[in-house]
Each structure stands twice: as structure tokens, then as C-alpha cells.
Design brief:
206 residues; globular
């Protein structure tokens, strides 16, 4: 069973982890928000499963609705807020895996400067990573070992890479921790092919 971690803004649980990435399922209560924080040593990606999010940076903001994503590079200060009276649900992927890699600049709950991540809560449902529906999104595990296997796959909207990469001349152009759209996966595979297996979560809106 998966165990929740209680937060002042809601709760979260660890959905998936390997040596390179961790994926968290976040529940942010209506009109609540995370701290304004950065991750000095890791990149993170956010994808909205249900509800609407406002992602604030030091000098700008973006609004995301279900099925939409954003990548946040290391060191960038950001805050996520639930914009409606519905609970905001998101997937957050981090690379590398280090939940305490955090610097809080501002916080509505008095946690500035703290790296404490929350307390264990209650056990919740068992997640079947092969195929699952959360909010307004279908999530299913995919593995591609060739260009043909990609084209034979059911089409999706976004792909959250958990293992493998698309590379060119020794440089990784997409790898663990990245969330990329279907059309961009297609462009990269057409151009560079696959040198190794590519694994991850495919997300398709209902």
C-alpha cells in the first residue's frame, strides 16, 4: 500500500521511484499553495491531473489545467497554488532523487529555511502503474525499444521519462526526469532514433 505524507497545504505520496527519478502524486487543497522554493541540485516537472494550478516564479507566473505540464530547472524559485474550489492533483517528477534538496524563500505556514518534508499519514490505495485513471487523466506505463514500437503504441499527450534517453553524438536530448509531449517525442525519435530502451509514464486526458 502507498502511504501519504501530510503537508500543511494537503498531502502527497510516492508513486514511483528508481535510481534516477522519483514521481510524487500531490494533492493541494483548494486555494492553498506550496512554499516559494527552489531545488538547487535537481530538475522537476509538474503535470496537472485534475483542477487548475498557478505556478509562480520570482517575476512571472503560468496557469496550468489538466493535461498540461511545466519543466522547472534546478535553482529556479517556484510556488504551486490551487486556483479553484477543487483539490488540485499533480504528478511531480524529480531528477536526481533527493526530497530534501530544497530552499524555502517564503512560506504561508512558517517553514522558511526548513527542509522538513512532512509526516507519514495513513495507507491509501494500491496504484497499478500499468494503467490507472486519476482525475481527468489516464496514466499507463510504456516502454519503447525501437522507432517501430513507438509508432505501434497508443497515442498519448505527454510522456514522463523514468529510464533511458534519446541521444545524439553522446549528448542526451531527453532523459530521466523530463516530461515531453507526444509530438516532440516523435520529432526526436524520427531525427535521432533510439539507442536504448525508453521507459516512462504516458499521460492521456480522458
Amino acid at each position: 500500500m502507498l502511504k501519504t505524507i501530510k503537508k500543511p497545504w494537503g498531502h502527497e505520496y510516492l508513486l514511483y521511484q528508481n535510481d534516477e527519478v522519483a514521481i510524487w502524486h500531490l494533492f493541494i487543497n483548494p486555494y492553498h499553495q506550496t512554499s516559494l522554493h527552489s531545488h538547487p541540485n535537481k530538475k522537476t516537472g509538474l503535470l496537472v491531473l485534475d483542477g487548475a494550478a498557478k505556478i509562480s516564479f520570482l517575476g512571472s507566473e503560468s496557469k496550468l489545467f489538466y493535461g498540461e505540464k511545466i519543466m522547472i530547472r534546478h535553482g529556479v524559485f517556484h510556488r504551486t497554488k490551487s486556483m479553484t474550489n477543487n483539490t488540485l492533483q499533480l504528478l511531480e517528477i524529480e531528477n536526481p532523487v533527493n526530497k530534501e534538496d530544497i530552499v524555502r524563500l517564503e512560506d504561508s505556514y512558517g517553514r522558511e529555511g526548513s527542509t522538513k518534508m512532512g509526516d507519514d499519514g495513513v495507507d491509501i490505495y494500491q496504484f497499478d502503474i500499468r494503467c490507472h485513471t486519476i482525475g481527468n487523466c489516464h496514466i499507463f506505463f510504456k516502454e519503447f525499444n525501437s522507432k517501430d514500437s513507438f509508432y505501434d503504441s497508443e497515442q498519448f499527450e505527454n510522456f514522463m521519462i523514468t529510464k533511458g534517453s534519446i541521444s545524439h553524438l553522446g549528448f542526451s536530448v531527453a532523459g530521466p526526469g523530463d516530461i515531453i509531449g507526444y509530438s516532440n517525442v516523435k520529432i526526436l525519435i524520427d531525427k535521432f532514433g533510439l539507442s536504448n530502451n525508453l521507459e516512462g509514464l504516458a499521460i492521456k486526458t480522458c
